[in-house]
Design brief:
The chain contains 13 helices and ten strands. The chain is α+β, with helices and mostly antiparallel strands and about 325 residues long.
């Protein structure tokens, strides 16, 4: 191990805290052998639905050294997005908490770039790439390996200190850093997430059938929502937080302090009637710079109509 491996690792963790990250853990870059069979099986069972991009870059997903040439370490980070106010209290129709504010891809990547720039000033130049849900990386696997948390029965990364309402990000670099160790599992016999899912998307312990997931149906699915979802959407028009909301560990979640993730007034104030009458112009105004842009106006209208029409039946 390089003599500076521990010093650099400590420096990086201190810097991560300064830049607002909740947790930071380090793993040695290499092949994720333990993830090969579970990932292959998940794909073979069609649990990715129409997300065909999940089949691409299979080797890179399992080995970051193929994604970032010369990489030696994976730095995993988490960034809190738990809101101070739950918009679901104001409207019958709901949006997942992660999408209340600006697009996390852009916000967190900018923070990562600034953090890396400061690190290079202090420890010297090094090669790296930064990611947040933006490349073929098994983020939860690396976060688990680095000790940030464990993968819960709902397939989200959980921590005893903060629950699961946070984004994951990575810095894959050519620095040799002292690695951390995986933490223990603390789900025990709890089944709250499994029992609460209205579409039975959590098909077994830590395996989610994406094609049954409300988040998939409202965001990733480009065609019409299947009738099997009728009456089971629980009023989620974009995303779904049910399996996180019922998780006992999320009683420890505390509000974030990132201004760019704060809910827009329109998201908090719109009632069901206003969402029903949503226009392209209002959509573009409310969701400018928002993750909700991913589903586009037509997709969000499809979701709203599917939910509300189902109530008439």
């Amino acid at each position: 191990m390089n003599a500076n491996a521990r010093k650099y690792a400590e420096n990086i963790k201190t810097k991560a805290k300064k830049f607002g990250f909740q947790s930071c853990g380090i793993s040695k870059a290499g092949f994720l052998e333990e993830d090969v069979t579970p990932f292959e099986t998940w794909l073979q069972n069609g649990h990715h639905g129409e997300m065909s991009y999940m089949e691409n870059h299979f080797d890179k997903r399992l080995d970051p050294t193929l994604l970032v040439e010369g990489s030696k370490s994976v730095i995993s980070l988490s960034y809190n997005y738990y809101p101070e106010t739950d918009a679901g209290k104001f409207s019958e129709l709901k949006i997942s908490k992660y999408a209340y504010g600006e697009d996390y891809h852009e916000v967190i990547k900018e923070i990562l770039r600034e953090m890396v720039a400061e690190l290079k000033e202090e420890i010297g130049d090094f090669d790296c790439r930064v990611f947040t849900d933006s490349a073929p990386i098994l983020e939860r696997s690396w976060a688990r390996k680095s000790g940030i948390g464990w993968v819960g029965k709902n397939a989200n990364l959980l921590t005893k200190q903060h629950g699961s309402f946070y984004f994951l990000a990575e810095i894959i670099c050519d620095l040799e850093l002292e690695p951390d160790f995986a933490t223990t599992d603390h789900c025990g016999s709890c089944r709250r997430c499994i029992d609460a899912c209205p579409t039975d998307a959590i098909v077994s312990d830590r395996i989610v059938d994406g094609s049954k997931c409300i988040s998939y149906a409202t965001i990733e699915l480009k065609n019409e929502i299947p009738e099997s979802f009728r009456g089971k959407m629980a009023d989620w028009m974009f995303g779904c937080d049910i399996c996180q909301d019922v998780c006992p560990w999320n009683r420890f979640a505390s509000p974030h302090n990132q201004p760019k993730f704060r809910a827009k007034d329109e998201i908090l104030s719109h009632n069901t009637g206003e969402w029903r009458e949503l226009s392209q112009e209002i959509f573009s105004e409310i969701f400018r710079k928002s993750p909700v842009k991913r589903t586009k106006f037509a997709g969000l209208k499809r979701n709203i109509d599917f939910i509300l029409n189902g109530k008439k039946l």
